[in-house]
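Table 4 source record.
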Amino acid sequence: MKNIETLMKKAAELKSEGLVEGQISEELNVSSETVTWLLTHAEKAGAVPGPKDVSVDWSMIGKSAYRLGHVSQAMTDMVCDVLDRNSCDLDVVVGIALSGLPLATHVATEMGVDLAVYMPSKQLVSGDAGQRHGNLSANFSEVKGKECVIIDDVITSGRTMEESIGYLFDHEAKTNAIAVLIDKKGIDEISGVEVCSMLKMLRVN
């Protein structure tokens, strides 16, 4: 996105197409709070300061299967480092829908393990507004009793990862690592699980 006006326009377009705020935040790689601000202050952008957030556009990687494959190889290498260092095993790679799935698919292929898909609550169109967790797709691997690694594209607030780890724990699975392209929160662990990221953003203000 070139500027804040473009971001606001894109958020409004996505909302008009029927996407809920959680889905818009996934598409724009910003927090749900930022999406709310983009949608409610589009006509008075200068009146209320926006949340401290950064929009991430990694479409130059995502639109090329070749580039995506090479980036995923690097993520696989990071995951192997964490698992080796902590003497952990891996049975299932859990991809966070939607943008984490291509990366997770490549990593699972490289590691020779099964693939599971987690749909976080922020992307669910229906259900209770206060729903605390999403669900695993029945079309992919089960996780019960399995050693898992979670793969996503971007960590913004960390809430999706906390939710995912909690869901896996409740379903008798162990999360041994988290791997992402970009960590906007600049953290080393979430809920006791080590985070490895290709790029880590650290705010200096």
